[in-house]
Design goal:
CATH topology: Amino acid/polyamine transporter I
Strand content: under 5%
Structural class: mainly alpha
Order of helices and strands: HHHHHEEHHHHHHHHHH
CATH superfamily: Amino acid/polyamine transporter I
Low-confidence stretches: 434-450
Number of domains: 1
CATH architecture: Up-down Bundle
Length: about 450
Amino acid sequence: MQFFIQEPSLKAAGNLYTIIGFATLPFLWALPEAIMTYELSTRYPDNSGGMRWVSEAFGKKLGLLTGSVGWFSGVATAASYPVLFLSYIHQQYYSHLEDLDPLSRYFILLAITSTLLLVNYRGLHVVGNVTIIIFLISIAPFLVMIIIGFPEVDPERWLETPTGEIVDFDDDSLENSSWWPFAYVSGIAFRPYINNLFWNFNGFDQGSHLSEADTCTPKTLRWGIAGSFILVCSVYMLPILVATGATDIEQNEWNAGSFARAGNEIAGRWLGNWIVFAAGLSLLAQFFAECSCDSMQILGMADKDLLPPVFKTRSKYNTPTFGLLLALGLIVLLLPLKFGVIIELSNFAFVFQATCEFSAFAKLRIRKGDGSLMRKTLYSLMIAPPLLLNITIMLLASYATYICGAIVMAFGVLLIYLPGMIQSSHQLNRPRRSASAPQLGSFASVTRNV
């Protein structure tokens, strides 16, 4: 859940359609994903998460491919947070200066990322405590803005529709070419609008990466998912209603960091500065949580012998050392990209993962589940909107995103077959002995025979 990243939707679609989007998507997307995560995590508690569900439903090959693509999506999301954090700082305090040159920007982002990963390395209890403190600090200025600004709200401003085509998107959302023929639908910049909505509400399945008994109890998982859904429904909507109803910010003026401008108009610059400070802390907390889940997923995959044994290694703080290093390696490659490009890459990979997970849910809980006919019917109706939204996200992607997605898929397929092929080659080239040949190692045997 990203607390401060709704401005692209306001710029792309205007007040009315943004409010409609943030009011409906929790129930069309977030609630089905949350229910699926709880149902399958309690029946298949495993830190590998959705990979385990897909493996149970369709076999280990597709499970490993789903896990690999889903891990890429998670790490890409994590890479976006330092990028956005730097944008907030620059826009609020150094907007009078020119943009950083690419090399300086890259090394600053690399320093931020490395520092944050050290916190993850220190252990989940440190991440959890820090995240709770940051959440309380982050939500406080919005509560102040809501209290001060709500009496000034003019409901008619909520009904404002798009004013025309918005050409200048600061996150490059419309600059990459795509086969989709319509950049605008009824005045809405459809591609950045849908991508931003989707990105703000996905991620409930990440809770499954902390579902093993030694990490989380079913009761904790249930309350965690339920609490997150309530926060999604409230923390997003109330600030949008106040910021759009109590300020004069025009549609084309919404950019990353514009909530700080709304705070300036409602209560003064002190509130705007507080919002920027809280936004930075919130993004850091999201980075901690995302990297923790992604590294635990790598650990879960290694525990199932789907990755080399080295990824089972834990640090003295009981954290997955090489899982964090693998995440750092991918983030290093993504940091030079613009925020909008990273988000589209993350969304594109995630819809493949989510489609496989919802399909596994359909097989395990609807087709083969022990629930009543009414329960199965409700589940069938529940997963239809998320699947349709997944298709929409894939159709809206740019050519560059299709190419990157194909590379990620190819890497996942390579991860399935390459170890077995290498082991088979070694067996063929090894001199014959009278004694029986040694057995394959666990990683090679699993990946060869799945």
